[in-house]
Amino acid sequence: MCGLQQYHRQRRMATRRHQGRMYLCGENILVNVFNNLMVNSKYRAQAPKWGTPGIADGCDDKSVIDYNCYAASAITSTLQQDIDDETTVPYLNYVSNKNYADAVDAHSIIAQGANDLGVAFINYALDTNRLDNAEYDEAWDFTAQRLPEGATDGAALTGIVKTSLSIAGKTYTAQAPQKFFGARK
Questions:
Q1: What gap in Å lies between CA 14 and CA 20, rounded to an integer?
Q2: What CA–CA distance (Å, rounded) separates 74 from 114?
Q3: Would you say 55 and 13 are in contact if contact means Cβ atoms under 8 Å apart?
Q4: Fewer beta carbons under 10 A from the terminal one: N or C of the chain?
């Protein structure tokens, strides 16, 4: 079994054919994904076959994929696949897709409309950076100016939160989770 623990990350994904997923968890992996800020993503976290862990099936049902934030702007995709799917604006798939497991993102903050969560960064315009732009701009500053409430300090997740990992005698450490979404506050 593999494991992944991720918190306090920020993601921006370009929307392309069969891409744009934030997290896709399967094949018996144990994951703990929380306090992440996803912006203009086409999909929320997905865990196919949730509740049926196995080598060729879903992720471990002890996984935690929750307390994340999915923010969306009013930017519109002109990709034909999005036009065909009627998901030209990022939040449309958050609210219309029925393939999300109930246990995934049960406490997450999920955009129901464009810019409804009030997320803002020091130097990154949510409404002007096209969804199909995969070019990184060094001038972007993803330090959050405004974030919604709803992140966890990890206290309720004490059974899963680890701040260090030892591999072959070397210990890698990370800060304990803090109660905000994203990598920088």
A1: 6
A2: 5
A3: no
A4: N
B/e letters for 4-18, b = 16+ CB within 10 Å, e = fewer, are ebebbebbbbbbeee
- Residue found by looking up tokens 């009013």 in the block: 74
Look at the chain and count its residues. 185
Residue 162 CA to residue 94 CA, distance in Å, equals 29
Structure tokens at 21: 């997923």
pTM, two decimal places: 0.77
Structure tokens at 48: 């196919």
Span 62-81, pLDDT tens digits = 778 888 999 999 888 888 88
* Alpha-carbon span 183 to 185, nearest angstrom: 7
| Of 104, 83, 92, 112, residue with least CA distance to 24 | 104
Q: Dump pLDDT digits (tens) for 97-142.
A: 666 777 788 899 999 999 999 999 999 888 887 777 778 889 988 8
